[in-house]
């Protein structure tokens, strides 16, 4: 799996969402690398990492564990954006003792509904037939708060449009089969952070509030001017929150 590795000290792994890649965390790298070690993988099938034969949130989590094993890092903190948060929750299911902290950014603990699963299959088939271009057109617009600006919209469309059809289709199906994790939240015993965009059209505010309330040691931070992509919409704010979080872990 391809990844960036910057800084020294407490390791923090930043996992991107769908259909994106590690570039979404560019605005946090410099600050985080000053206060610790930051690792930014491209999940299989995204960015520079080729697709793997099998995709599931657990399979992605195992790839992260293998990466950390390869680097000799037993304990690490993790921050996952949206689908990356589903992977972070899979890591907590597979290897809770290895997590020194868990941050969920614009993510959720609920599974897909039956309708949601069918919609994932429709997306997967369309991506396989046409490529990812239509997703960059349709999905990017729903990702932002009130005023993203043309440059940011184009940047996100560029990242989405550069993903491989095989990787995106596999991830869409994998998200459709992810398990319900609300009860799991109660078993999280490491320091936790929930970052939510006040204007998120994908994860409603009540879900973020519910998640933070269910995790014993969670702090909830609102990105007041953001939609679903606070790390791009309010990069400095998110960098500062993640740096403070990594110092606690
Ligand atoms: C993401 O940003 O990773 C996706 O919106 C997550 C999802 O579709 O459930």
What is the mean pLDDT? 96
SS class: alpha/beta
Report the bound ligands by name, code or SMILES.
D-malate
Radius of gyration: 16 Å
Distance between the termini: 25 Å
The amount of beta strand, in percent, is 15-25%
Helix content: 40-55%
What topology, given as strand order, has the largest sheet?
Answer: 1-3-2-4-5-6-7
- What composes the largest sheet? 7 strands, mixed
Shape: globular
**What is the H-and-E element order?**
EEHEHEHEHHHHEHEHH
How many separate helices? 10
Quick description:
With about 250 residues, this protein is α/β, with parallel strands linked by helices. It contains 10 helices and 7 strands.
Q: Which key features would you list for this structure?
A:
16% strand; 249 residues; 7 strands; 45% helix; globular; alpha/beta; binds D-malate; seven-stranded mixed β-sheet
């Amino acid at each position: 799996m391809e990844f960036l590795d910057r800084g020294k000290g407490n390791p923090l792994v930043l996992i991107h969402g769908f259909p994106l890649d590690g570039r979404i965390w560019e605005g946090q790298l410099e600050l985080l690398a000053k206060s610790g070690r930051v690792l930014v993988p491209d999940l299989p099938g995204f960015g520079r990492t080729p697709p793997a034969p099998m995709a599931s949130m657990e399979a992605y989590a195992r790839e992260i564990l293998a990466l950390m094993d390869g680097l000799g890092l037993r304990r690490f903190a993790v921050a996952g954006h949206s689908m990356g948060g589903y992977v972070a929750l899979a890591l907590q299911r597979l290897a809770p003792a290895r997590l020194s902290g868990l941050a969920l950014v614009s993510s959720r603990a609920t599974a897909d509904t039956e309708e949601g699963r069918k919609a994932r299959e429709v997306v997967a088939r369309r991506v396989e037939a046409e490529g990812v271009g239509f997703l960059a057109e349709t999905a990017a617009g729903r990702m932002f708060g009130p005023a993203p600006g043309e440059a940011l919209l184009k940047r996100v469309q560029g990242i989405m449009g550069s993903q491989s059809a095989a990787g995106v289709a596999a991830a869409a199906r994998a998200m459709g089969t992810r398990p319900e994790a609300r009860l799991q939240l109660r078993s999280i015993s490491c320091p936790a952070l929930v970052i939510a965009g006040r204007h998120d059209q994908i994860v409603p505010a009540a879900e973020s509030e519910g998640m933070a309330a269910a995790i014993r040691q969670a702090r909830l931070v609102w990105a007041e001017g953001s939609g679903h992509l606070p790390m791009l919409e309010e990069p400095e704010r998110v960098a500062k929150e993640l740096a403070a979080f990594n110092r606690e872990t």
